[in-house]
Design brief:
By secondary structure, the protein is mainly alpha-helical. It has one domain. It has ten helices and no strands. The model has no long low-confidence stretch (mean pLDDT about 90).
Length: about 200
């Protein structure tokens, strides 16, 4: 993957900035789950509203990132290296279906491992055709998904509550880890050595 191809690809070009946004959203979205795991659950409608606000807010911020990078790099090529939507839409649909099933029927404790696996598969697939960093990023998320799933306490499943250990792994793998990866992508592809930063 060259810098020029990355900066002209409509799906890749803002991915570093978007990792910052989704890393923050992923940290915020599990606040109701942490509260439930501590035995002080939020009212259902508050938790749902919080989740919707996190997702919508992150989506709007990503659109602003796309506009920012377009001003920096110029218009994107009409044909991307990989049509990322064809990778992500089926995965996100499957994740949403199984999240609803887990919340309605249990076990809720597997929601975070499920999403780490889904996002990991998405980045592994994207990385196979595009950015090599996405391959090890996706592999890291899959490994964290496995560790998280294995660490689920059966008692937590019976209570129908989230598991604190899965939330902690989520916070690191789906939250904090996204920031240095975003920095790396931006430094390597968007702002290569010698180029000006806004």
């Amino acid at each position: 993957m060259t810098t020029e191809i990355f900066r002209r690809d409509k799906f890749l070009r803002a991915s570093g900035y978007n990792l910052y946004v989704w890393g923050a959203a992923n940290l915020l979205v599990v606040l109701p789950a942490y509260a439930a795991a501590r035995g002080a659950p939020w009212p259902g409608w508050v938790g749902l509203l919080h989740t919707v606000v996190c997702i919508v807010g992150a989506s709007v911020a990503c659109a602003l990132n796309d506009n920012r990078v377009e001003k920096l790099c110029g218009p994107a090529n009409e044909t991307p290296v990989v049509d990322a939507g064809r990778i992500w839409l089926p995965l996100l649909a499957a994740g949403t279906i199984w999240t609803v099933i887990f919340i309605a029927r249990g076990p809720v404790a597997y929601v975070q491992p499920l999403w780490m696996a889904i996002v990991g598969v998405g980045y592994l697939s994207w990385g196979a055709f595009a950015v090599p960093e996405f391959r090890w990023f996706g592999g890291m998320l899959l490994a964290c998904s496995a560790v998280s799933g294995i660490s689920v306490d059966p008692i937590a499943i019976q209570r129908g509550a989230p598991a604190v250990n899965t939330l902690a792994i989520w916070s690191v793998a789906m939250g904090l880890a996204w920031f240095p990866i975003g920095v790396h992508l931006n430094r390597k592809y968007v702002y290569p050595r010698g180029s000006a930063q806004p």
